[in-house]
């Protein structure tokens, strides 16, 4: 027995090694049958065989548990598609019909493929979970029962595919659109050809490296944001006329009469369209309100992906609760006349009489054209 213990010690397995503990147990059970040193070789062979059986059993159990975890993610995704429609909408911010059409679209164009253990639908569901709830990969891991690394790989695989999708789906609106809202929006954009957005509620939060921030502050020559009367009418910011009606509700009973009122009415309409469009986009994808600190190229691609999915629902006229609610709501931003929430985030405003006069003249030109057309 002493010789066996000396031999065991020479193997240097360590007192906490499972092989060492197992060998001690076997020594204890077989010590009465090991009178000869020659039996030690037989004992080691038996111990090695027994350990291999234990390891094989552990591997089988591990594979079974892994399969069960994979099955949980698959079952969860199938439940989203086929069970409660409300759960599907709450979890991935799309209706069941929209989700199935989106997955089929990516599959047919070979932008996404199912792997051995994860389907296209499950990959897309993981991605939509992240951008639909601004969740970290650790939180998504608990729901889909995959490792954080797997969630990370699937997310970026879908993100890359989304760039192909965006090139197809983010295109100018067709000129033969029959939607009344699109026609009104197009008419207003013709009135304000330099407008690139409304100031309040439309900025997308991003974490931009300090050395790259300047390039994202410019608006371009003759381009401007529509803003409320609390802003100065200067280059890059077109405000309404003060001391004239501006709220859309003010024009429901009495039409605009003066050139200032006509301008303010069109200005408020376009602001309302833009803010509602961004409103429904941000409600669907809260990640746009507070972007996680991904590398900047990833942040950029996430924004593009959100817009692409948004446009997909609109393009194929898929029934959608958010679109329905916002279309039926004649809301006007409560910031109108009360100061924008995002004023503190606006940098690079140009001051001085020259730039103020430039924007004042541009506003007067638009107002005169509206008045001239309205008086005919």
Q: If you had to describe this structure to a student in words, what would you say it looks like?
A:
With 376 residues, this protein is mostly helical. The chain folds into three domains: 2-63; 73-169; 182-374, no CATH class. It is built from 13 helices and three strands. Strands 1-2-3 form a three-stranded parallel beta sheet.
Short overview:
The protein has 376 residues and is an all-alpha fold. The chain has helices spanning 2-10, 18-30, 39-82, 85-92, 96-108, 120-133, 137-144, 148-169, 180-191, 259-284, 296-315, 321-328, 353-374, and strands spanning 195-198, 224-226, 237-238.
Strand order of the largest sheet: 1-2-3
What's the alpha carbon Rg, rounded to whole Å? 32 Å
Report the biggest beta sheet as strand number plus sense, adding barrel if it closes. 3 strands, parallel
Mean pLDDT: 78
Low-pLDDT parts are 66-70, 330-345
Given helix and strand content, the structural type is: mainly alpha
Number of strands: 3
CA(first)-CA(last) distance: 114 Å
């Amino acid at each position: 027995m002493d010789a066996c213990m000396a031999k065991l010690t020479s193997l240097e397995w360590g007192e906490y090694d499972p092989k060492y503990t197992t060998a001690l147990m076997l020594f204890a059970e077989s010590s009465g049958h090991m009178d000869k040193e020659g039996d030690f070789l037989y004992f080691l062979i038996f111990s090695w065989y027994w350990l291999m059986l234990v390891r094989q059993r552990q591997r089988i159990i591990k594979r079974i548990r892994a399969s069960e975890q994979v099955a949980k993610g698959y079952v969860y995704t199938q439940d989203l598609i086929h069970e409660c429609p409300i759960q599907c909408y709450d979890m991935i911010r799309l209706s069941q019909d929209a989700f199935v059409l989106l997955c089929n679209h990516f599959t047919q164009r070979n932008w996404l493929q199912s792997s051995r253990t994860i389907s296209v639908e499950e990959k897309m569901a993981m991605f939509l979970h992240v951008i639909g709830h601004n969740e970290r990969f650790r939180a998504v891991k608990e729901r889909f029962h995959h490792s954080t690394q797997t969630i990370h790989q699937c997310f970026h695989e879908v993100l890359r595919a989304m760039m192909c999708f965006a090139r197809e789906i983010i295109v100018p609106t067709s000129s033969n659109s029959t939607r009344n809202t699109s026609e009104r929006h197009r008419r207003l954009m013709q009135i304000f050809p330099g407008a690139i957005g409304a100031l309040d509620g439309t900025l997308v939060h991003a974490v931009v490296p300090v050395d790259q921030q300047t390039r994202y502050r410019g608006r371009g020559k003759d381009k401007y944001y529509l803003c409320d009367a609390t802003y100065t009418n200067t280059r890059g910011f077109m405000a309404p006329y003060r001391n004239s009606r501006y709220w859309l509700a003010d024009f429901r009973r009495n039409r605009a009469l003066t050139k200032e009122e006509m301008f303010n009415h069109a200005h408020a309409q376009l602001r309302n369209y833009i803010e509602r469009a961004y409103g429904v986009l941000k409600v669907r994808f809260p990640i746009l309100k507070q972007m996680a600190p991904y590398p900047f190229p990833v942040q950029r691609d996430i924004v593009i992906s959100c817009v692409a999915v948004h446009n997909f629902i609109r393009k194929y006229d898929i029934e959608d609760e958010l679109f329905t609610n916002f279309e039926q709501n004649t809301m006007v931003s409560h910031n109108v006349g009360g100061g924008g929430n995002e004023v503190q985030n606006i940098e690079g405003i140009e001051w001085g009489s020259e730039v103020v006069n430039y924007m004042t003249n541009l506003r007067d030109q638009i107002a005169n054209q509206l008045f001239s057309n309205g008086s005919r």
